[in-house]
Design brief:
Radius of gyration: 27 Å
CATH architecture of the largest domain: Alpha-Beta Barrel
Strand order of the largest sheet: 8-9-11-12-13-14-15-16
Low-confidence stretches: none
Oligomer: single chain
Helix content: 40-55%
CATH superfamily of the largest domain: EAL domain
CATH topology of the largest domain: TIM Barrel
Number of domains: 2
Order of helices and strands: EHHEEHEEEHEHEEEHHEHHEHEHEHHEHE
Number of helices: 14
Length: 401
């Protein structure tokens, strides 16, 4: 069973119109037909999805795989050749997922599901290719479904806490912290964000999770405000691209601040460079609204992605955070040291604070200070932990506002 899906077909419909899309589908069907034997079955499931069932293959799996590869490669090549759409040349590719009928008791819809999963693997691998179904793929999908179900349930039960990593000045004194979410799974214990944030992003659960994180962070700011020695700390919260681009994001932030009573001038929202490549004008508008209310804004992992300096000078930022990859190799790679110096100079020229992330050794700390860096974060000072870990930390005499 070959599950064939055209790559980026929606783009053609959106740019050239559905009539051009229909014409492409007709030509794809003609090309597929030219590679189908009399005993095989070709069908269009709907949209830009086709299914090809090959029969009469060798009974030895390794031989059958070679036969299928030969057919699959021909189809991939055939569908990648340019199309003539009413005089306009158009190039399209396809991703193919392949599943075998390994036993008599297997139902067709189960085989189709496996081929569909393999097709998504082909897309994830870069498109314009094919992938065979692997039983490990099914196990991974099942585990992911189970984790998603747990995540939805835990969101309803608020099974999430924040850990806080201190941010310090050149004397190692506390000036703020970054809030990092942890999932208190009922059976797996404390789950780090790397295991569930990507799932939350892909399922849309990042929106309710993000609101919960912001709510907990604002509650923490209120708690700190009751202690004179902690009242001036800034708390940074990471915001995903999907969150920030949601139409209600700014209103959600303002509502959370109002509900909690947190001081907006103590809240810092961290964006990533990847968020700058989409709807920049809308992004600037939202940032300006937040900045006008007193919320601080930082650009996280700076230098690891792509930032247009033209846009950067227009963004109402307060801070740049040097990506930890440059800090890690600072002492061994002259190019990384040069990038760090450039970011520090850029921050100074744009009147932005600059924080070095991922500082793990005294040597890195000393080198960064020699370069003029005055804000730091990393395991050298502390790993993320409960809020009470910060209560006895030595505070900077003058905190950044």
């Amino acid at each position: 069973m070959l599950f064939i899906d055209l790559d980026n077909f929606k783009n053609l419909n959106d740019t050239l119109g559905h009539d051009m899309g229909d014409l492409l589908l007709q030509q794809v069907a003609e090309r597929l037909n030219s590679h189908v034997r009399a005993q095989d079955t070709l069908a269009r499931l709907g949209g830009d999805e086709f299914v090809l069932m090959l029969e009469g293959l060798n009974l030895k799996p390794e031989q059958a795989v070679r036969q299928i590869e030969k057919v699959g490669n021909k189809i991939v090549a055939a569908l990648a050749s340019p199309y003539n759409l009413k005089g306009r040349s158009h190039t399209s590719t396809a991703s193919i997922g392949i599943a075998l009928f390994p036993a008599e008791y297997d139902k067709v819809d189960e085989v189709l599901k496996r081929a569909d999963m393999a097709m998504y693997e082909a897309k994830a691998a870069g498109r314009n290719g094919m992938r065979f179904f692997d039983p490990r793929m099914q196990a991974e999908v099942s585990a992911r479904a189970s984790l998603e179900s747990d995540l939805r349930q835990s969101l309803g039960q608020r099974d999430f806490i924040l850990h806080y990593q201190p941010q310090v000045d050149a004397q190692g004194q506390l000036i703020g912290a970054e809030a990092l979410v942890r999932w208190q799974h009922p059976t797996r214990g404390l789950v780090p964000p790397g295991e569930f944030i990507p799932l939350a992003e892909s399922t849309g659960l990042i929106l309710p999770l993000g609101r919960l994180i912001l709510h907990i962070a604002c509650q923490q700011l209120v708690a700190w405000a009751a202690h004179p020695q902690l009242a001036q700390l800034t708390l940074a919260v990471n915001v995903s691209a999907r969150q920030f681009h949601h139409p209600d994001f700014v209103e959600d932030v303002f509502a959370t601040l109002a509900e909690s009573g947190a001081n907006p001038q103590r809240l810092e929202l961290e964006l990533t460079e990847s968020q700058l490549v989409e709807d920049v004008e809308v992004l600037i508008g939202k940032m300006s609204q937040l900045k006008a209310r007193g919320v601080h804004l930082a650009l996280d992992d700076f230098g690891a992605g792509y930032s247009s300096l033209n846009y950067l000078k227009r963004l109402p930022l307060d801070q740049l955070k040097i990506d930890q990859s440059f800090v890690r190799d600072l002492l061994e790679q002259p190019s990384d040291a040069a990038i760090v110096r450039t970011i520090l100079a850029l921050g100074a020229n744009l009147n932005l604070a600059v924080t070095a992330e991922g500082v793990e050794t005294q040597e890195q700390y000393d080198a960064l200070q020699d370069m003029g860096c005055r804000r730091f974060q990393g395991y050298l000072f502390a790993k993320p932990g409960p809020a009470q870990n910060l209560e006895h930390w030595p505070l900077a005499t003058t905190l950044a506002g």
